[in-house]
Design brief:
The protein is an alpha/beta fold. Helix content is about 45%, strand content about 15%. The longest helix has 19 residues.
C-alpha cells in the first residue's frame, strides 16, 4: 500500500500583498469579562472567515485547559466547525498537546478533519500539557507528568505510523487502523485519498526545535510567550535540520502577539487587557480577559508593573503602519519563514479590527 502523501507545497505558504512572508492566525478563543464561550467561538468563526477572505495562509487553534479566559480545550471540535465556515485557508492545531492524548485518538480526529476539509488540515503537536500540573494529571489520569514529556519522540513515531497506516508486521498495532485513513483504500471497493495532514512540531525551547530538525519536519516557535528563546531555538532547528521526503530545507514559523488599532492609544488600551490577564494567570489567579476600563484602572504594584512592561515589550502593537514596521523588523531579525499572529484583547471587535487593519497595511486582497 502506498503511504499517504504530504508535499512541501502544503507546508510552505506564499507571501501575499507586500508582506515579507506568509501571514497566518493563531486563535486562543479568548473569553472576555461579560462574554460567554459561545461569544468567543462565534468570534473565532468571524476571524477565520476574515482570514480566509483576506489571504492569510492558515488559522490554528491552541489547546489549553482549566483557564476560564481561554475556550480552546478541544481544538479538533473547533476546527471541524471552522471548516464548515471557510473555503480556502488551512486549518490546524497550534497545537494539540500530544502527551495529553492517545496517539490513535489524535490520528482518528485529524483523519476525520482531513475528510471534512481535504488538503486544508495541519497537525501541530506540542509536548507541554497546556495547563497546570494538577490539570495535566487529571487529563492523563497519571501524576507521572515528566514521563509523558520524555516519551514524546516515541508517541510521535506511533502517531505518524497510525496516520500512515504502516506499522511493520509483528508490531502489536499492525492490525489496528486509524479510520478515516489509508486502510480504507485496501478494503474491497475502497477508495481513499492517500493524503494526510502534515505534522508540525511546536516549541518554546530547544527540545522540539532539535527534534523537528532531525526529523526534517516544519517547526513553529512560540515567540509570543518565549521571545528570549526565539533566535536560539530557530538556530538550533536550522543547524539540526536533515532533509526529509517532506522538506529539503528548514521551514519555521513564529507565533507573534500583534494588535493594530486605528490609533496608538486604543492599541495600548487593548493590549493591556491581555497583559493583565497573563499577570493573573502567572500569579495563580486565571480568569476572564478584563475589559479595557478594568485594566486601565488596575492598581499595579511596582513588581506587577515590571512584569506587564516586560510582557508588552514583546507585543507588536500600535497603528497599522507601526505594526507593519514591527513585524517586518521581527521577520528580518529571526529569518522566520512565516508569521502567525495572535491578537489578545478583551472583545472580538478589537481582534477583528486588528486583523483587518494588518491586512490593509500589507495590501492583502480585499
Amino acid at each position: 500500500m502506498e503511504a499517504p502523501h504530504v508535499t512541501a507545497h502544503e507546508i510552505r505558504g506564499t507571501a501575499v500583498g507586500t508582506a515579507p512572508v506568509p501571514l497566518s492566525v493563531l486563535d486562543l478563543v479568548t473569553v472576555g469579562a461579560g462574554r460567554t464561550a459561545t461569544d468567543a467561538l462565534r468570534a473565532s468563526v468571524d476571524i477565520a472567515r476574515l482570514a480566509d477572505r483576506r489571504g492569510f495562509h492558515r488559522h490554528w487553534i491552541a489547546e489549553h485547559h482549566s483557564m476560564p479566559g481561554v475556550a480552546s480545550s478541544s481544538p479538533a471540535v473547533i476546527l471541524s466547525h471552522l471548516a464548515a465556515h471557510t473555503r480556502r485557508i488551512r486549518l490546524g492545531s497550534g497545537g494539540v498537546m500530544l502527551p495529553n492524548h492517545a496517539p490513535l485518538v489524535i490520528a482518528e480526529q485529524f483523519g476525520t478533519l482531513e475528510a471534512l476539509a481535504p488538503g486544508r488540515i495541519d497537525l501541530g503537536l506540542g509536548r507541554a500539557p497546556g495547563t497546570d500540573g494538577a490539570t495535566a494529571a487529571a487529563l492523563r489520569r497519571s501524576d507521572r507528568l515528566n514521563e509523558g514529556a520524555d516519551d514524546f519522540p516515541q508517541q510521535l513515531m506511533e502517531l505518524t505510523r497510525f496516520l500512515d497506516d504502516d506499522f511493520p508486521d509483528g508490531h502489536p498495532y499492525a492490525r489496528i487502523h486509524a479510520v478515516p485513513g489509508p486502510v480504507q483504500a485496501t478494503s474491497p471497493g475502497g477508495v481513499q485519498d492517500p493524503h494526510r495532514p502534515p505534522i508540525w512540531l511546536l516549541g518554546s525551547s530547544g527540545f522540539s526545535a532539535r527534534l523537528a530538525g532531525q526529523l526534517g519536519l516544519p517547526f513553529a516557535f512560540a515567540h509570543h510567550f518565549s521571545a528570549q528563546n526565539t533566535i536560539p531555538a530557530l538556530d538550533l532547528y536550522r543547524e539540526s535540520f536533515r532533509p526529509s521526503e517532506l522538506l529539503d530545507a528548514p521551514y519555521a514559523l513564529i507565533g507573534v502577539a500583534a494588535l493594530a488599532a486605528d490609533d496608538e492609544k486604543e492599541a495600548e488600551r487593548q493590549v493591556l487587557t491581555g497583559a493583565l490577564s497573563m499577570l493573573r494567570l502567572r500569579t495563580g489567579r486565571p480568569g476572564l480577559i478584563p475589559t479595557p476600563d478594568e485594566a486601565a484602572a488596575h492598581p499595579f504594584t511596582p513588581m506587577e508593573r515590571e512584569f506587564v512592561d516586560s510582557w508588552l515589550h514583546n507585543i507588536v502593537y500600535g497603528t497599522p503602519d507601526a505594526v507593519r514596521t514591527g513585524l517586518d523588523d521581527l521577520q528580518k531579525r529571526t529569518g522566520a519563514d512565516e508569521l502567525m499572529l495572535t491578537a489578545n484583547a478583551h472583545g472580538p471587535e478589537a481582534r477583528l479590527r486588528s486583523y483587518e487593519l494588518i491586512a490593509d497595511a500589507y495590501g492583502l486582497p480585499a
